Amino acid sequence: MTGSITGATAVAGVAGSPIAHSLSPLIQNAWIRAAGFDAVYVAFSPPADRFSHFAEGLRGGTIRGLNVTLPFKEAALGVADKVGERAELAGAANLLIFNEDGSITADNVDGLGLLGALAAQAPGFDPKAGPAVVLGAGGAARGAAAALVMAGAPEVRIVNRTQARAEVVAGSVGGGAQAYPQDAAARAFDGANVLINATSAGIAGDDALILPLEATPAGAVIMDMTYKPLVTPFLEQARRLGRRTVDGLEMLIRQAGPSFEAFYGRPPPAGVDVRGLCIARLEAWSS
Ligand code: ATR
User: Fold this and answer.
1) Is residue 256 included in any domain, yes or no?
2) CB of 136 closer than 6 A to ligand 1?
3) Which residues of the chain have pLDDT under 70?
4) What is the pLDDT of residue 210?
5) Burial readout 46-81 (b: 16 or more C-beta within 10 A, e: otherwise)
6) Is the domain of 115 the same as that of 206?
């Protein structure tokens, strides 16, 4: 926000439920302020069964675009007239662009966030260098697996507590992905280049995931898509083993950049410490 809302203020936002603790408004408005243009980014929480009505009403330039988060990522695909390959493969959209001609374009930049976080926090990481392991079989896992297949991972292994769900994800992302039950995790971890936790275990006071991370090679990169807390018990376990780790906050920030660019046609301004702002906000919430 430039300080005051005008009749020409460009609006973009994020839709999800719950949404009050989204960090996206903090990130996007910090960039808008630094870039000094007349725009604002706000959070919306449409009723669970009204997402498509909500999005339909925004057609025709009412809003530049929307980031979409849980539980609307699949519904977001359904309202779009054009669906990009990344969203198609992920089976979900996290970015809707409302074009002036009234059409809606769906994209998914979570994969860019994931790969950007790996590049930032594990310099030199190459997704093509070896097998990738994804833990979980929900929407987050499917998105991560799709991104790794598209980035050229030679093999993608999906490990999940419920193996049948892992098989569905493996079948939908292509690239010869393989499903493993959780009790065969050590076998899936053998020779892994990267291991990504996309389960919801440990969130909301749930039991943290305890897996044989020592079965990964010493050079494996271990990532958690969750950022509450910033260093999850899963990442703590990986750090104790001396593995390089990547956190979910970096992924959130790295998907926010391409979203900003899609809304305003320019990359976010350099030199804004959005990570520091997010960490301060997370600390304030947890105290
Ligand atoms: P999302 O779409 O947000 O990824 P989801 O569809 O609820 O969420 O998926 C959550 C994932 O976390 C699932 O893979 C779930 O495993 P199941 O398919 O067996 O349910 C996994 N998960 C949640 N709690 C878990 C726990 N305590 N241990 C292992 N896996 C867990």
Assistant:
1) yes
2) yes
3) 1-3, 202-206
4) 84
5) beeeebeebbeebbeeebbbbbbbbebbebbbebbe
6) yes
Q: Which residues sit opposite 221 in a β-bridge?
A: 194, 244
Residue 71 alpha carbon to ligand 1 centre in Å: 14
Q: What's this model's pTM, rounded to 2 decimal places?
A: 0.95
- Give residue 204's pLDDT: 58
**What one-character-per-residue DSSP string does 63-131 give?**
SSEEEE-TT-HHHHHHH-SEE-HHHHHHT--SEEEE-TTS-EEEE--HHHHHHHHHHHHSTT--GGGS-
List the beta bridge partners of residue 215: none
Tell me whether residue 73 is one of the annotated catalytic residues: yes
The total number of structural domains that make up the chain: 2
What is the pLDDT, as a whole number, of residue 4? 82
Q: Please tell me if the CB atom of residue 206 comes closer than 6 angstroms to any atom of ligand 1.
A: yes
260: CATH? 3.40.50.10860
